[in-house]
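Q: Convert this sequence to structure tokens.
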Amino acid sequence: MKNSNNKQHFRPDGIVFLLVLVLSGSILLKPLLSPPNDEKQAQAKTRAESLGYQLLQLQADSRKPVKSLGQGRGPASVEGEGMAFKSEGSIGIDPWGSPYKYRVVQNRPDEPEVIEIWSPNLSDKVLISSSSKTH
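A:
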């Protein structure tokens, strides 16, 4: 019976080749498997702007007096504190699944209202003013 000691060894050039192959494969596949972050950032900013204008409208509506339907009653949907507008809170969900946060930055009678909106994943905060477009 023949006793052979055939041991396989990794050569250094084989290890280097394998590492280069794995790294190049992961670099090439990453853009194909995940959507570009720029698109999500654009979607998040557009959504934040839309939510900001909705918040401005809600804030304006919360200041309007509720007309009574007679006998001292108003519509059931707005009775009590249902129309109260909070100066900060959460609204909507960003493309990554996190809630948008908002805060009323400026709310003086003699100046335009400004609402700041952000999410943990959005690169910049969005400012919405009642007198102009986004800043």
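Residues 37-63 form the longest helix (27 residues).
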